[in-house]
């Protein structure tokens, strides 16, 4: 893919936005029970033995006030809600470029 096409596809992504998009993609790439199996972790199940599923996943910008932090909200079928924050403690010192392998 030419560099111009990458710029069009990703726009002006900052590193924290890429990490946020990666977390969202990873957590929604399969059902939660499959992700647990792939990571060799126990599955989360309801009382009836059925697996808990991700019912909603969305990105957020932390509080929307002068912060670079980003994150992903996950709502699960058992009613629980989790917020995973990509917290920025230091930005890259030099220019960061995007490329596909």
- Going by helix content, strand content and strand pairing, the class is alpha+beta
Strand content: 15-25%
- Spatial separation of the terminal alpha carbons: 10 Å
The helix content, as a percent range, equals 25-40%
Rg over CA atoms, rounded to whole Å, is 17 Å
The SSE order reads HHHEEE
**Envelope shape:** elongated
Strand order, largest beta sheet: 1-2-3
Low-confidence stretches: none
* Average pLDDT over all residues: 81
Query: Total number of β-strand segments?
Result: 3
Biggest sheet descriptor: 3 strands, antiparallel
User: If helices are DSSP runs of H or I spanning 4 or more residues, what is the number of helices?
Assistant: 3
Question: Please, could you describe this protein's structure?
Answer:
With 101 residues, the chain is α+β, with helices and mostly antiparallel strands. It is built from three helices and three strands; from the N terminus they run αααβββ. Helix content is 28%, strand content 21%. The chain has a three-stranded antiparallel sheet with strand order 1-2-3, covered by helices on one side. The protein starts with a helix and ends in a 15-residue tail after the last strand. The model has no long low-confidence stretch (mean pLDDT 81).
């Amino acid at each position: 893919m030419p560099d111009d096409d990458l710029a069009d596809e990703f726009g002006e992504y900052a590193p924290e936005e890429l990490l946020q998009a990666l977390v969202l993609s990873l957590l929604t790439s399969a059902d939660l029970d499959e992700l647990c199996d792939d990571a060799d972790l126990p599955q989360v199940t309801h009382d009836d033995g059925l697996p808990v599923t991700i019912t909603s996943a969305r990105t957020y910008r932390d509080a929307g006030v002068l912060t670079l932090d980003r994150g992903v909200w996950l709502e699960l079928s058992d009613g629980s809600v989790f917020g995973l924050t990509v917290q920025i403690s230091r930005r890259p010192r030099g220019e960061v470029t995007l490329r596909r392998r």
